[in-house]
Amino acid sequence: MSDPVVPQDMDKLIHEPARLAIMTQLYVVESADFIFVMQRTGLTWGNLSSHLSKLENAGYVAVTKEFVDKKPHTLLKLTPHGRTAFETYREQMEAMLAGLPKQSI
Amino acid sequence: MNTLQDLKQEERTSFLTYFNDGILEIVVGVIALGIFGWIKADIPALVGAWAAVCVPLWALLKRKITAQRIGLVNFKGESSFRKKRSKQLFRSGLGIFLLAGIVIFMIRENMGAGINATFHAIPLLPFYLIGIMGLVILALNIKLKRYWYLALLLALAAVVSYYTGADGLTGILVVGLVFLGVGSTLLFQFMKLYPKPNLAD
């Protein structure tokens, strides 16, 4: 049995559970607004804002502010860089978990 | 929070959330009650126009209730197919209801003897067929069991109308009320499950 390998270059920005949830939601859609991501992830407004800032600064998420029916509306979208980073993270996690034995010793 | 979610399941859950608000059922119920009302008032030609008026109502309710609670989302790449299908469904629905108005008008005005004879066995058969077809298309596309049950209910109403010789309008009234009931219950549950988010914590 091969030893499970923990990738050293695992993206810690995505690895954090709240940010992973945000990335997962945005990965399966073209774009979504703030309320959608907030509802689907269960994060509060402040928490989501804070995590989104980090993801935006890393260039993973594009944030567009616009007006819909005269109300401010925040549109979120994974950038191509963010999509690639998420796919790499996913592959690393799958490879790491696939190396684990079926039962604990 | 599940960190290793099944992405396809996640996409499906996001997609289905939009159909669990009961608004479609409410609008279909309102359309059915409109059919009942217009035919009862002897103005069947307005049925198609009524359906066309109800479509913006659906969009308005979606924007005012659903979008404010669960937000807005555009499904990605592979789902441009889904968007296309939604547009096709929308156009088919509109076309079907306009056609229904024309057919009913023709029957009422005795403009098509053949059509009249064919549909005479069950009063308002075109509406039942159109309704059943629409629900089956929805059930096949969205894969929600609820639409199969509602299609079955409509078929049952047509059969009961046939065997009891009852006025086909009564069946449409009952079906409309059932749709309204189901839609209102779903909407109530949806609003309870997704309260308006607090954007100022």
Describe the structure.
The complex is a heterodimer of chains A (105) and B (201). Chain A has one domain (12-96): Orthogonal Bundle (Arc Repressor Mutant, subunit A), CATH 1.10.10. Chain A is built from 5 helices and 3 strands, in the order H-H-E-H-H-E-E-H. Chain A has helices at residues 12-15, 17-27, 34-41, 45-57, 80-98; strands spanning 29-33, 61-68, 71-78. In chain A, strands 1-3-2 form a 3-stranded antiparallel sheet. With 201 residues, chain B is mainly alpha-helical. Helices cover 76% and strands 1% of the residues of chain B. Chain B has 8 helices and 1 strand. The A-B interface holds A 17-18, 20-21, 24-25, 27-42, 44-46, 68-69, 73, 93, 97 and B 1, 3-5, 7-8, 10-11, 14, 63, 67-77, 79, 194, 197-201. Strand 1 of chain A pairs antiparallel with strand 1 of chain B, so a sheet runs across the interface.
Count of domain modules of chain A: 1
- In helices, the fraction of residues of chain B equals over 70%
Main beta sheet of chain B: strand number and arrangement? Answer: none
Strand arrangement in the largest pleated sheet of chain A: 1-3-2
What number of structural domains do the residues of chain B give? 1
Model regions low in confidence, pLDDT < 50 over at least 5 residues of chain B: none
Stretches of chain A where pLDDT is under 50 for at least 5 consecutive residues are none
Total beta strands of chain B: 1
Q: How does the overall form of chain B come out from the CA principal axes?
A: elongated
The CATH H-level superfamily of chain A is Winged helix-like DNA-binding domain superfamily/Winged helix DNA-binding domain
Distance between the termini of chain B: 21 Å
Beta-strand residue percentage of chain B = under 5%
Rg of Cα set of chain A: 16 Å
CATH architecture of chain A: Orthogonal Bundle
Q: Which oligomerization state do the chains in this entry correspond to? A: heterodimer
| Biggest sheet features of chain A | 3 strands, antiparallel
Shape of chain A: elongated
The number of distinct helices of chain B, counting runs of at least 4 residues, comes to 8
Output the CATH class name of chain A.
Answer: Mainly Alpha
- Computed over alpha carbons, the radius of gyration of chain B is 19 Å
Distance between the termini of chain A: 13 Å
